[in-house]
């Protein structure tokens, strides 16, 4: 069984929808290297995503400092577009600045993107703090969407094409 697991995971990683096929297969190595250059550690997951029709990778890294970092990269070039730090729900760096509670953020995101919440993250970003939700719609597609924890505004949705790792 184990001998089939790794090939199956690799096949899933590179089996993408046609609209992303010409973009997601090129910058992954550069993306991972650039992300690790910013935050040394161990890659714990990799996602292929579409944001506003543009293919990108999201690399989650457990840093040598014990923190979890997320780097988003342009899929064609591997260039890091943004990095974020994931924190725990009660982290003072998040709760001390948040003006929008989790319940209000959930209500906002589910009003526009109905479905099942499959993951919630608390993010510290260069431009502030945000709740990040993975929502699985009735069609089975997963959308990643952020809600600004200070203003309550929704960010741009990202369609999750695949994920390998946690």
Question: Could you give a short description of this structure?
Answer:
The protein is of the alpha+beta class and 166 residues long. The chain folds into two domains: 1-84, Nuclear Transport Factor 2, Chain: A (Roll); 88-161, Roll (Nuclear Transport Factor 2, Chain: A). It contains five helices and eight strands.
Task: Name the features.
single chain, Nuclear Transport Factor 2, Chain: A, 42% strand, 166 residues, 8-stranded antiparallel β-barrel, alpha+beta, 2 domains, disordered N terminus, 5 helices
What does this structure look like?
- The structure is a single chain.
- It contains 5 helices and 8 strands.
- By secondary structure, it is of the alpha+beta class.
- It folds into 2 domains: about 1-85, Roll (Nuclear Transport Factor 2, Chain: A); about 90-160, Nuclear Transport Factor 2, Chain: A (Roll).
- The protein has an 8-stranded antiparallel barrel with strand order 1-2-3-4-5-6-7-8, surrounded by 4 helices.
- Strand 6 (about 130-135) and strand 7 form a beta hairpin.
- The longest helix is centred in the first third of the chain and has 13 residues, at about 1-15.
């Amino acid at each position: 069984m184990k001998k089939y697991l790794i090939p199956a995971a690799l096949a899933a990683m590179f089996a993408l929808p046609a609209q992303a096929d010409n973009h997601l297969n090129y910058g992954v190595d550069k993306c991972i290297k650039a992300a690790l250059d910013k935050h040394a550690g161990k890659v714990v997951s990799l996602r292929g995503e579409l944001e506003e029709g543009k293919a990108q990778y999201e690399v989650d890294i457990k840093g040598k400092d014990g923190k979890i970092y997320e780097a988003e990269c342009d899929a064609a070039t591997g260039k890091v577009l943004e990095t974020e730090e994931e924190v725990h729900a009660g982290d003072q760096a998040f709760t001390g600045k948040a003006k929008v509670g989790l319940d209000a953020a959930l209500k906002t995101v589910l009003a526009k993107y109905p479905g099942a919440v499959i993951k919630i993250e608390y993010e510290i970003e260069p431009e502030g703090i945000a709740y990040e939700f993975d929502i699985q719609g009735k069609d089975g597609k997963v959308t990643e969407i952020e809600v600004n924890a200070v203003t309550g505004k929704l960010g741009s949705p990202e369609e999750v094409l695949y994920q390998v790792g946690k």
